[in-house]
């Protein structure tokens, strides 16, 4: 080793040895120097956003009730095998988007990337086959996909979903599409429905062959991923998002031309039901969806006029008649859909026709002095328990700022408790419109206000 390098090395070590030890304060300061940041692709739901989420949840819950669905909640952590077997190992989600969980007991677990597989697992685990069929379930919750974050695409996002298990009839597909459509109608979002049929195990091999034969002729124009997947899972080429693969899809053979008789009949019936319901749908021959468990009907919903680019689907779903058996259950035909809550809420806000309802307060409780604060809290509690919409702000001290808040809230009456009122066991009622004040006994406050507000 040349001499000068050796010296440099020694001096580096020497510097380390002589570095003074950190004081506990310095160690502490270093530990807290940087505030941990929100992980990429994740979102905080801040207080100004949560009312929109509550609004959507309320509309979905009420729609679900009216169509006879029961709510189900499954854990966000599931066995990795659940998704590998159901979504398929040659899909984007399984190949590159799952979040593995380090489990001390060596179990292979992931954060769920979607919920349909979990619903079918729960259906099998809890013997729901023994319930009257079909079983109609809805859910709402966070999903996790390690995708490249961009507008409308997050790593933690939320889905609302509806699933009907135990009925193969095409009316089920039509009812689900109707529900998905009605949710948007209810939110005043105009959507279009894209629909296709991707057949069953009987008719798929012939279509696969024809698809492979077509794609071989344009192999040099395909992206590398599609070329790799072509033999194993040719349908994935139709689901590819790469720009170079888009024109190739347009020339690809159509699945509807290869459907076996039962699949053709099923699809025709779904379309007839949609016609009868007057739902606006479009046949999209390259719609295959990005998950392997689908068969027969598949569909997606887009904001009208924004159909180009499947990155922006507000929701999607389809039939998955074989999934129960893939997961070790009995044959159970099923169909469902899910919508992305972030995308739906962004659209509601963008369109602006649905308004949030502001909270309505009738009474404001104001206080002056420490003793009055505790009396005011008691009074607030009594009014609240009597179902009177009452507001307060115990952090403010002066009367003026409190009455300003009362004014902003538009309350009819303010109730004031000061030192004197505490001693006399009274309160002052101030009519916020006329400014007229009167004094009443503390214990009479609830009944008096109920009368004044016409609540008794
Ligand atoms: P999916 O198409 O993968 O289907 O997701 C459904 C919806 O979730 C999408 O249309 C989109 O609105 C939203 N979504 C998906 N990924 C993201 C993301 N990274 N960020 C924001 N939103 C996203 C399913 O998950 C199936 N389980 C649907 C289903 C239910 N099929 C039958 N039943």
UniProtKB/TrEMBL annotation:
L-histidine binds at residues 114-116, 145, 159, 163, 289, 293-294. It catalyses: tRNA(His) + L-histidine + ATP = L-histidyl-tRNA(His) + AMP + diphosphate + H(+). Its EC number is 6.1.1.21. InterPro entries: aa-tRNA-synth_II, aa-tRNA-synth_II/BPL/LPL, Anticodon-bd, Anticodon-bd_dom_sf, His-tRNA-ligase, HisRS-like_core, HisRS/HisZ. One of its GO terms (molecular function) is histidine-tRNA ligase activity. It comes from the Bacteria. GO terms for biological process: histidyl-tRNA aminoacylation. It is found in: Cytoplasm. One of its GO terms (cellular component) is cytoplasm. It is an enzyme of class 6 (ligase). Residues 64-359 form the Aminoacyl-transfer RNA synthetases class-II family profile domain. NCBIfam families: hisS. Homodimer. Belongs to the class-II aminoacyl-tRNA synthetase family. This is Histidine--tRNA ligase. The gene is hisS.
